[in-house]
């Protein structure tokens, strides 16, 4: 099939390449001419604008977005909404908030444009291994884009999970679970690193990959990271979050579902960004006030 790919970053660029390798025709656009040039060199047709991309496609057109969630997605969907026609399909494969996707689907439907929200997981490894795809939206629209879904996903790695919003909702919870898994590995390996046994963390990560109940792809990636840097000395313990963990915790609150592990893993990311915690200062000050416990002062002990 022929489709447009908007956004050629780490995910979008590799997805375009996987589609080309799978025999699809790709028309590519990105604000960066260099990114368009790289994708064109791999076999895509390049476009200098969204209007140019739409003009290169055949009806019913399929345009796939891989752009940052939030304002960029909002503006791009709005512009494409004015360029696409009745029967065309717009796929948002980014990490958009599911309620925004539901709203966008409703707005575009008024113009006869079909919208799919596609939760996409696979990271930089997706080019070779494939992407897990969680798709929400109308059945007919899904069938229109299904040849691309089947190329992008590994075997059994794609599903139409429900109506509009379901794809991004499922991906949101997926990422919330990821937060908890990452936190558990981080805490466990810190216990190992601080212990009295002078453990070889690379060795432990290596053997846990075989037969252990905690083996996973994440553990394999941790093994690879420790192989490059055994004590992770070159990495600062500053952990960002891209929104999905916050949204998962809010959804849990809305639905009265207890999620202490996911919530604490989110808050631990916030803590990682503090060189100095005011909360810790308050606790230290209170312990000093009520119990006379010693405090450490700036420039002293």
Can you tag this structure with a few keywords?
alpha/beta; 8-stranded mixed β-sheet; single chain; 8 strands; 301 residues; globular
Please provide a written account of the structure.
With 301 residues, the protein is α/β, with parallel strands linked by helices. Helices cover 51% and strands 13% of the residues. It has 13 helices and eight strands. The protein has helices at residues 10-21, 33-41, 50-55, 71-81, 98-109, 126-129, 139-152, 166-194, 201-208, 217-228, 244-254, 260-272, 278-291, and strands at 2-6, 25-29, 45-46, 62-65, 89-92, 114-121, 132-136, 158-162. The protein has an eight-stranded mixed β-sheet with strand order 3-2-1-4-5-6-7-8, with helices on both faces. Strand 5 (89-92), helix 5 (98-109) and strand 6 (114-121) form a beta-alpha-beta unit. The longest helix has 29 residues, at 166-194. The protein starts with a strand and ends in a 10-residue tail after the last helix.
Please give the number of β-strands. Answer: 8
Cα-based radius of gyration, to the nearest Å: 23 Å
Give the low-pLDDT segments.
none
Amount of beta strand: 5-15%
Approximate shape? globular
Mean pLDDT: 95
Annotation field: number of helices: 13
Please bin the fraction of helical residues. Answer: 40-55%
Largest sheet: 8 strands, mixed
Measured between the Cα atoms of the first and last residue, the distance is 68 Å
Strand order of the largest sheet: 3-2-1-4-5-6-7-8
Topology order in helix (H) and strand (E) letters: EHEHEHEHEHEHEHEHHHHHH
Indicate the structural class.
alpha/beta
């Amino acid at each position: 099939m022929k489709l447009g790919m908007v956004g050629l970053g780490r995910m979008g660029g590799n997805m375009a390449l996987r589609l080309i390798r799978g025999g699809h025709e790709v028309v590519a656009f990105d604000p960066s001419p260099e990114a368009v040039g790289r994708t064109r060199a791999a076999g895509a047709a390049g476009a200098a604008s969204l209007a140019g991309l739409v003009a290169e496609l055949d009806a019913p057109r399929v345009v796939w977005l891989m752009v940052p969630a939030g304002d960029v997605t909002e503006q791009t969907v709005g512009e494409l909404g004015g360029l696409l026609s009745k029967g065309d399909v717009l796929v948002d494969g980014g990490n958009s908030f599911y309620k925004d996707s539901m709203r966008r689907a409703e707005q575009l439907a008024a113009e006869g444009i079909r919208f799919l929200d596609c939760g996409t997981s696979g990271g930089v490894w997706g080019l070779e291994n494939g992407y897990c795809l969680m798709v929400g939206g109308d059945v007919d629209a899904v069938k229109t884009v299904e040849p691309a879904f089947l190329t992008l996903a590994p075997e059994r790695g794609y599903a139409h999970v429900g109506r509009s919003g379901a794809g991004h909702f499922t991906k949101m919870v997926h990422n919330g679970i990821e937060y908890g898994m990452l936190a558990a590995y981080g805490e466990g390996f810190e216990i190992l690193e601080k212990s009295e046994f002078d453990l070889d963390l690379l060795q432990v990560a290596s053997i846990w990959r075989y037969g252990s109940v905690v083996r996973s792809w994440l553990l394999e990636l941790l093994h690879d990271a420790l192989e490059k840097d055994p004590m992770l000395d070159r990495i600062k313990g500053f952990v960002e979050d891209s929104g999905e963990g916050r949204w998962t915790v809010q959804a849990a609150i809305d639905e009265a579902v207890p999620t202490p592990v996911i919530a604490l893993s989110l808050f631990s990311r916030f803590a990682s960004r503090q060189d100095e915690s005011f909360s810790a200062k308050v606790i230290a000050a209170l312990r000093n006030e009520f119990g006379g416990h010693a405090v450490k002062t700036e420039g002293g002990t």
